[in-house]
Amino acid sequence: MLVFVRAGDRVGLASVRRAVAVGVVSLVDVPEAAEVIVVEISQESDLEELRKLRGSSTQAVIVAHTMRQDQALWQAAERSGADKVVSSGGLSVLLRQLDGRMRSSERRERLIPLCWTAEVAGRLGIIASVQHDLGELMLVKEQGKPVCLVGPCPHAGESLGRALVEDGVITCPAHGSQFLVAGGERVRGPADCGLMELRVVEDGGRYWAVSPPLS
Ligand code: FES
């Protein structure tokens, strides 16, 4: 997680150093490059600085921290644009939590929605087909768990969204290439390779394909 730190008291800076030491935080030199901006607040001029940062950094999470147990100051920091206000001693815990949330949001972005499970309950064959940058994502169910294979057909690009599925094999409607449902392996040409398979997860009433990790 990329963090810009604007000044800070001794306790707050020690908290940030701990987060850096365990790999939760990488420090950046300018607020424009940061996912999280850390600002110490102890006086009115800090609130003014906070307002400026809020105005120029609309995307970053701004964390204000202070050694002062002063409710009015904490509320003023929130009004000035802080997303979170914590005691300086609690900063490192909060940075860990923010990092965990950002990582899980990255994981969510890797899930590609395929269809609602209720819509395809009891159906067999290619039960959903979704166009995506990766290709034609087909959710195939024959026996057991659904699998996701990526079309179109590698021979001449025919869509496999309405292909026949029988005995664990998908047959391309154009020239008859065949692929195993389990794993996408080529069974018969003219296609000279198989289909990529993506992992499928069921969550929140939907089937999702898990896109391969970015390299
Ligand atoms: S396009 Fe599928 S076999 Fe030719």
From TrEMBL:
CDD domains: Rieske. Keywords: 2Fe-2S, Iron, Iron-sulfur, Metal-binding. The keyword Nucleus does not apply. Residues 111-209 form the Rieske domain. The keyword Secreted does not apply. Pfam families: Rieske. Signal peptide: none annotated. This is Rieske (2Fe-2S) protein.
